[in-house]
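Subgroup meeting minutes
Present: P.N., E.W., G.H.
Scribe: E.W.

1. P.N. recapped why we're keeping a running log of single-chain structure predictions: easier to compare across weeks, and new members can see raw inputs and outputs side by side.
2. G.H. added today's entry (128 aa).
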Amino acid sequence: MGFLIRVLVNAFAIYLIARIVPGIEVSSLLTALGAGLVLGLINAIVRPILVVLTLPVTLVTLGLFLLVLNGLCLWLTSLLVTGFEIHGVWAAVWGALLVSVVSWILNAFVSDRGRIVVITGRGRRLHD
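Output recorded in log:
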């Protein structure tokens, strides 16, 4: 259930950035959903391998290379999903940054098991 919600969050983030960032196009809501699924799989399988391989560069740039790496993962998603296009390196980097921010904000309200999390003054509490 949690993976499905994360795919929906990614799809919403991709659909939103296509409206904001010039150079990123999504042809339909179904395309955004497919891109969210592919991006989730790439982030789960390919990205950890790339993070380990590029660790020296990431350390030298004090972590800023991770933005480029996220842009690369988003660009790879656009290669695999028809109807989702990214034109240019900067569009990929800005798009990846915004997808990360939107996903981070939305995932703050969802637990790993797919439950809604209510944030109160005393901490986080699960809500069914």
